[in-house]
Design brief:
Elements (H helix, E strand, L loop, with lengths): L1 H7 L3 E7 L3 H7 L9 H9 L5 E3 L6 E3 L4 E7 L5 E3 L2 E2 L5 E2 L2 E3 L2 E8 L16 H22 L3 E11 L2 E11 L7 H9 L2
Antiparallel strand pairs: 1-4, 2-3, 4-9, 5-8, 6-7, 10-11
Helix pairs in contact: 2-3, 4-5
């Protein structure tokens, strides 16, 4: 989105929402296609539409029950020096240049409750929430496609090159232990 806004010569409007329905937070940490409407996904989980209200200074909508809303624009004409930062994996990221938000408005409820997810080295709150959402999706695909009885997704860390990354590993239950797992299951899991 930032690159498209920069190509148009515009700043990217943004509304940062803190608090509100847990279903919106749940949808926000899922790995879904970029074009997915996360409010629509949240509404589907709630079995009713998510009520939205217009922002005061940007042309966006936010959940009506948000605790805090920070509105503004992500500048596309300027990058702010940032870092270096010590990372949880034990290495230091070098200084980089990153986009910055120019805040235009902050609104909040009276006595707002500040909520967040701790998203660090897996397993973290966000990876556990993603696991809860993804296991049934993979199980459904594997059960109906390959006759798998059960599947679980485990998070772990591994070192690659000079940095560490979060990854996932599936544990698959099957009734026959002598099948050619690599050739039979890997193509389905890679979809």
């Amino acid at each position: 989105h930032w690159n498209k806004a920069k190509a148009r010569g515009e700043h990217l409007p943004v509304a940062i929402v803190i608090g509100g329905s847990p279903l919106i937070t749940f949808a926000g940490v899922q790995r879904v296609p970029i074009e997915t409407d996360e409010f629509g996904l949240s509404g589907g989980l709630a079995c009713e539409p998510i009520r939205l209200v217009k922002c005061k200074t940007v042309d966006m909508e936010v959940p009506h029950d948000a605790e805090v809303v920070i509105e503004g624009y992500i500048r596309t004409d300027y990058l702010e020096p940032e870092g270096p930062f010590g990372e949880s994996y034990g290495f230091v990221c070098p200084r980089t240049e990153s986009p910055m938000v120019e805040v235009t408005c902050i609104t909040h409820r009276r006595d707002p409750i500040w909520t967040s997810f701790i998203s660090q080295v897996t397993p973290s709150e966000s990876s556990v929430i993603r696991k809860a959402a993804m296991e049934p999706v993979y199980l459904n695909q594997l059960r109906h496609g390959l006759g798998i009885k059960g599947v679980t997704l485990h998070s772990y860390r591994y070192a690659w090159a000079e940095r560490a990354r979060a990854a996932g590993m599936f544990v698959v239950m099957d009734r026959c232990i002598y099948r050619d797992y690599k050739n039979e299951y890997a193509p389905t899991l890679a979809q």
